[in-house]
């Protein structure tokens, strides 16, 4: 069992620089990805998304990637010396024409950005993908480890709660059988007053008891509940994504419990139904965070 809550970071070399990756995941019905990367890396966004979707079935993921050191070797500085000399000559001539004296701050007058160009070195992020993906995989591994660890805690608690529910089902089964015995005893008592010493056939007695029970018979619902519990217990040991299957089984168990609650007239069964619904709700809350 895997939880959908996880966190992982990684840092490593790629190209000529260093890359930092952070991944956060929380519960979600589907697989939703929010990717935050530098604009120049958009060419590999689809590869990042594919990588995450290959590793995880469900969850909402926030992926943050930045270059701690430029992957293509920093910036490139270009100085236009010819243009600078032309500006210098133009300023000299202007001073002469206007009869100005004193020194002129050359860079203030011209603007440094006109003669010095600073550009980040570019390159193909697709070609660096094998190196980039290795750093991402380390972060993914940390997320998986955390999701698995939390999943184990959830599974352990689920097994305990499942045992409680199974005990309640056995209790309801016992009370149901007692109610049926009470029905038979009441029928015998009534018929003895009518038939006297004439014995009543056992088959007829059972039919009369079933008829008297009528809508109070919960044996079918209990059988289905036991079946659902068995399937649920088996899924807890599965390594596949089981969250949706568990959620479906809990819905079915709730349906059976509600039916039992509407049918049963026994006060002990009604009390157990309330307790069982509370445990099923706790199971359902946990399952919302299971992949």
Can you tell me about this structure?
The protein has 291 residues and is α+β, with helices and mostly antiparallel strands. The chain folds into three domains: 6-72 and 127-146, Ribosomal Protein S5, domain 2 (2-Layer Sandwich), CATH 3.30.230; 75-120, no CATH class; 150-287, Butyryl-CoA Dehydrogenase, subunit A, domain 3. 60% of the residues lie in helices and 16% in strands. The strands form two sheets. The chain has a four-stranded mixed sheet, covered by helices on one side. Strands 5-6 form a two-stranded antiparallel sheet. The longest helix is centred in the middle third of the chain and has 67 residues, at 129-195.
Strand order of the largest sheet: 1-2-4-3
Q: What percentage of residues falls in helices of 4 or more residues?
A: 55-70%
CATH topology of the largest domain: the name is Butyryl-CoA Dehydrogenase, subunit A, domain 3
General shape: rod-shaped
Beta-strand content bin: 15-25%
Name given to the CATH architecture of the largest domain: Up-down Bundle
User: Strand-and-helix sequence, N→C?
Assistant: EEEHEEHHHEHHHHH
Tell how many strands the DSSP assignment holds: 6
For the biggest sheet, the summary is:
4 strands, mixed
The first-to-last residue Cα distance is 7 Å
The number of helical runs is 9
Secondary structure class reads alpha+beta
Low-confidence residue ranges: none
Residue-averaged pLDDT = 86
How many domain regions? 3
For the record, the CATH class of the largest domain is: Mainly Alpha
**Rg, Å, rounded:** 37 Å
């Amino acid at each position: 069992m895997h939880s959908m809550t996880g966190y992982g970071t990684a840092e490593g070399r790629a190209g000529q620089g260093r890359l930092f990756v952070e991944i956060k995941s929380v519960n979600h019905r589907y697989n939703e990805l929010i990717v935050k990367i530098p604009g120049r890396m958009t060419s590999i966004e689809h590869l990042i998304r594919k990588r995450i979707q290959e590793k995880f079935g469900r969850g909402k993921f926030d992926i943050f990637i930045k270059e701690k050191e430029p992957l293509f070797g920093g910036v490139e500085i270009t100085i236009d010396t010819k243009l600078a000399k032309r500006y210098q000559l133009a300023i000299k001539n202007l001073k002469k024409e206007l009869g100005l004296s004193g020194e002129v701050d050359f860079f203030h007058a011209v603007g440094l950005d006109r003669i010095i160009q600073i550009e980040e070195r570019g390159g193909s992020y697709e070609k660096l993908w094998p190196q980039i993906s290795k750093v991402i995989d380390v972060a993914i591994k940390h997320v998986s480890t955390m999701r698995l660890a939390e999943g184990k805690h959830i599974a352990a608690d689920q097994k305990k709660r499942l045992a409680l529910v199974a005990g309640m089902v056995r209790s309801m089964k016992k009370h149901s059988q007692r109610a049926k015995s009470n029905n038979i005893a009441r029928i015998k008592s009534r018929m003895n007053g009518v038939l006297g010493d004439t014995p009543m056939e056992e088959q007829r007695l059972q039919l009369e008891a079933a008829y008297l029970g009528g809508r109070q018979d919960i044996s079918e619902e209990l059988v289905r509940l036991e079946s659902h519990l068995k399937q649920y217990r088996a899924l807890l040991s599965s390594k596949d994504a089981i969250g949706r299957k568990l959620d479906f089984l809990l819905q079915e168990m709730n349906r059976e419990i509600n039916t039992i609650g509407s049918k049963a007239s026994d006060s002990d069964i009604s009390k157990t139904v309330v307790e069982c619904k509370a445990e099923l709700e706790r199971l359902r809350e946990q399952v919302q965070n299971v992949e």
